[in-house]
Amino acid sequence: MPDSRLATHLLLASLAVSAQSVLGIAASKKATPKVAQEVRAEDWPVWGGKNRDFLVNSSGLADSWPAAGPKKLWSRTLGDGYSAIAAEGGILYTAFRRGSKDVVTALDAASGKTRWEYEYENPFTNSFSEKVGPGPYAMPQVVGDRVVTASGTGKIHSLDKKTGRPVWSHNLYTEFDGTPVQFGYSCHALPYKNTLIYMSGGRGDGAIAFRQTDGAVVWKALEFTNSYSSHHEHKTPYGIAVSTPVWAAGNLLFVASAYGTGARVLRLNQANGQTKVKELWADPHIQLHFGTAIQRDGYVYLSSGYDGPVFMTAVELKTGAIKWRDRGFAKAQLLYADGKIILADQDGTLALCKVSPAKFEVLSKASVLESIAWTPPTLVGTRLYVRDRKTIEAFDLGR
Question: Bridge partners of 345?
């Protein structure tokens, strides 16, 4: 039975999955119908989209694409990095590498042109540098009037989202004795009320809540060693647990990783100020290396595999029963919108799919990226934004 410390971590995980950002959306009176539809589209401010679950409230997606792929709107070069793409109000936010510096940037969503950049020295070498770059790994998130992000060395920054001007910063390693991670810090802050909660890893300050406005420490607590995903404990070889846990109806939490540990589902129940955790099942063969998992109607869909064959897989949450497996793609990132799965695999293949507990169906696919692509795609309305370690691109997936 997990101890109370694990229960606390898992409570933070459920909070991370369910948290929502409250965002204002203004429509232009002079906009054409197509532009008006884009303005009303749901923004993607934080990791996983508005509700942090990679489920997008969008409609009007095409049911298939031409053989060459969906319509490309623009493409431009970008420095090395893995940071996902945030989107709000027609502006994209991501981060990349320039020499020994990390660069946080804002781009015009319609053209890809640079609006502003903020760069800072951040020397770092990944312990698996022969295959993995120096980052950045975390996505810049839009929280209120700020863009907040973290470097591979545990440096966090809060920037003015309109100008990129730094407002406050902290170093989780040097200021709070955080646990350095040899493959690069990649956690995302959890916006909660007026705070940002970061994992730091350490004795008494394993998790730290900073005030959003000025970075003041509101509280710090817990004791654990850092990992690479958002708030949970799931022991693996090398301490690598990358993928964000998935919260589902019935207080179920799906946690998965690679490196032989596999997946498990936990049921969380809270009463009298305490959270009790019960493991429903565990399966070392369901391995989620770095991708996203999509939960729909009691089932979870994921790209399962690590060092060997990779299978798109459907798993029943309550039992762990595998309903189907399909070996048609490399390790992939997923999002769900308009009744379809959008799949982006590490080889640069983009695919439009339909899933159910009964079957997996590929509607269309095309090769769109060339470099190793580990970054999850971002969807705003029918506009899809993808990147690899060299390029960022925009596509129109509409009918």
Answer: 332
